[in-house]
Amino acid sequence: MTTTGEEHATAGTGPWWWVRWRGAVLDAGLALASAAECGGEGVRFAHDAGLPVPVGVAFGVIAGSVLLVRRKWPIAVVLVSIAITPAQMGFLMGLVGLYTLAASELPRRITAALAAMSFAGMLIVTFVRTHQGVSSGDVAMGGWFVPFASITTAIGMTAPPVLLGLYMGARRRLMESLRERADSLERELQLLAERAEERAEWARAEERTRIAREMHDVVAHRVSLMVVHAAALQAVARKDPEKAVRNAALVGDMGRQALTELREMLGVLRTGSGPQVRVPEASPPAAAPAVPLAAVGAAAAVAASRAADGAGDAVEAGAAGEGPCLAELDALVGQSAAAGMVVALSVEGDVRAYGREVEQTAYRVVQEALTNVHKHAAGAKTYVRLAHRMSEIAMQVENECPPEAGAGSQVRLPSGGNGLLGMRERVSALGGVFVSGPTDAGGFRVSAVIPA
After folding, report:
1. Which of 307, 281, 305 minimizes the C-alpha distance to 293?
2. Parallel, antiparallel, or unpaired: how do β-strands 382-388 and 343-348 relate?
3. How far is it, in rounded angstroms, from Cα 176 to Cα 193?
4. Inter-CA distances, 330 with 10, 19, 346, Å
5. Alpha-helical regions (H) of 84-107
6. Among the three residues 194, 225, 248, which one is the final residue of a domain in this structure?
7. What is the C-alpha radius of gyration for the chain, rounded to an integer number of angstroms?
8. Boundary of a domain, candidates 194, 224, 248
9. What are 196-225's pLDDT values in tens digits?
């Protein structure tokens, strides 16, 4: 059996040049058989050569034992077998030696030359011995028998072991090649598995970031408007001002707490590591007990209902997978104007339809920019500009320096710092350019250009 992989690399446990003990035992057995054969044939060789029988037997045993080194020096084994062919010894050695030589990694020209020498030696010896037998009358055959017997014997003693050795050598090389390919494929599969795991981790991180960005864009703007409306109630309430102020402050506290909890969840989704953040339940302060919404007055009911309806519409749009479009910019600007912001919208160029992702990204950029104005520059005049160009769409949201005092300046909204990052990620994903920063006049400007 053949081994593969690391088993093949660690299989060399045999003595000396043998890879396995099994091969050493096989070669020792073949050497003993060859020594016994040559030793028996040495008796006749001693009689023919006029030598003492022990000398002929010892010569045969020594010559036959050379088969033990067939794996290490196959050329020497074949040369010895050719050398003792005239003495009619080493038939087993010749067969095994030629097989080992043909199966080895030696050049084929060496194998062919030694096989031809063995064929010629066997042909000559067989021809001489057969001719002597026919001449002495030991073999009663015609003249055709001598060359026929010589050629047949020479071919039978050389061709089968050489062909079998060539076949086994080619088979072994094929198995080694397949083994190397299997090892290479195993390494490639392991590398592909590692890369797949890295891609999966990257995809999970991207999905967490996308979910965080979507939650921020869909919810943060609506909740910020609710907080702004609730803060405005403190200034416009007329009936039972103290109670209205308390309830309006409660709505503002709940909105701020909701924004804080939302940003904590967004932080967990973005990092994907670290301890789980436990979000505390919203509870009213002890000094301000819960009061039904109807007690706030008609203005509070209208403001809260408008904010809740807007948030519900945004969640439904996100769930449906459609997302907002540029046609909804007027409504978006109108919501900010209803919250007390002085905002102006201007559109340049021919209005046309864009891809869903382009329109959704442009809408989200304007939405988040307006949310930032509500948070950090309440009461500042804001300009929203949209330009339809030949191969791109550009948008800019710029606010002036906020007033030093006023009701709007008292509204403090928590900020997690993910708004600008989300806008930059959205625009960059579409191959666009995003720039944001303060202006010389003390305001803030957000600009984006998206390929159409």
Report:
1. 305
2. parallel
3. 25
4. 76, 84, 10
5. 91-103
6. 194
7. 48
8. 194
9. 999 999 988 888 877 777 777 666 666 777
Strand pairing of 433-438 and 382-388?
unpaired
- Domain extent, residue 402, equals 326-452
* pLDDT tens, residue by residue, 60-91: 999 989 999 999 999 999 999 999 888 888 88
Whole-number Å distance between alpha carbons of 20 and 71: 12
Contact 120, 78 (CB under 8 A): no
Q: Which residue has the tokens 């031809």?
A: 116
DSSP letters for 290-308: ---GGGG-HHHHHHHHHHH
The predicted-structure confidence for 277-313, as pLDDT tens digits, reads as follows 343 343 433 333 333 333 333 334 334 344 334 434 4
Q: Do residues 190 and 197 touch, judged by C-beta distance below 8 A? A: no
Main-chain dihedrals φ then ψ at residue 169, nearest 5 degrees: -65, -45
Q: How far apart are CA 174 and CA 316, in angstroms?
A: 64
Q: Report the number of distinct structural domains present in the chain.
A: 2
Residue 52: helix, strand or coil by DSSP?
coil
Query: Would you tell me the crossing angle of helices 241-271 and 145-215 to the nearest 10 degrees?
Result: 170
**Tokens encoding 384:** 């929203």
